[in-house]
Design brief:
231 residues; alpha+beta; Alpha-Beta Plaits; Aminopeptidase; 7-stranded mixed beta sheet; 4-stranded mixed beta sheet; 7 helices; 23% strand; disordered C terminus
């Protein structure tokens, strides 16, 4: 059994090159959730699974990605979009979007991985211009959406949720449209899910993903500073 790398935050870089995931995708344990450590991890294809200590850092093989221009919008979702009862805003209330994702029940999960230390770290990243939210409103009520992080030409999806039908999908449609405008390379979906595959996401080998993420995250920033809210 392969033992995970133990994170030492005094070591620079925190995550050395050549880390190999175990059969579940785990590459490291420990460390802290600071903006600097998170940014380093993401540029190396690594993300924290939860904020619970010791923090588990993952880099699964294969990796699911979605090219923004290849999003599949099926007929039922098109009907929802045509109804126009759901409004989309970008970065209007980032902390509220994270809290909604943390508190929305999920049938397949008991509790949430979005712990207070994760919320603090991602709010800091939002204030730095890296983390962004796509919020969906029905009237004045926040009913779903998603949040993630933009580095260079890559967008890293963190979580999405819906309290009314199709709210998270509407957010993903709006996000992909914006990322096409900004010429982003891909959205990192982190885990393989049938839901995202039906919407056009594809699994790529980890070696391929690591090259993509290096090239994309070392490109000029395309979503910084944060864009104004979009009605």
């Amino acid at each position: 059994m392969q033992l995970p790398f133990i994170v030492n935050v005094r070591r620079q870089p925190v995550f050395p090159s050549g880390l190999t995931p175990d059969e579940h995708g785990l590459v490291a344990l420990g460390g802290r959730l600071t903006p600097e450590i998170i940014l380093e991890a993401y540029t190396k294809g690594i993300f924290p699974w939860t904020g619970e200590h010791p923090i588990p850092w993952f880099s699964p093989d294969p990796r699911l990605i979605l090219r923004p221009g290849e999003l599949a919008v099926h007929r039922s979702l098109r009907q929802t979009l045509r109804r126009g009862h759901l409004r989309v805003r970008f970065d209007a209330s980032f902390p509220a979007m994270m809290s909604l994702c943390a508190t929305t029940p999920r049938p397949e999960q008991d509790g949430t991985w979005i712990l207070p230390n994760m919320i603090r770290a991602w709010v800091d990243l939002h204030q730095m211009g890296f983390a962004h939210s796509v919020e969906v409103y029905e009237g004045e009520a926040l009913v779903g959406g998603l949040y993630g992080m933009a580095i260079g030409g890559a967008f890293f999806g963190e979580s999405m949720c819906a309290q009314v039908r199709d709210a998270s999908k509407v957010a993903l449609v709006a996000l992909c449209a914006r990322l096409v405008e900004l010429d982003f390379d891909f959205i990192d979906c982190q885990q393989e899910t049938d839901h995202l595959k039906r919407m056009g996401a594809v699994a790529v080998p980890r070696a391929d993903y690591l090259k993509r993420v290096h090239d994309a995250t070392h490109a000029p920033a395309r979503w910084s500073p944060p864009l104004p809210p979009h009605l």
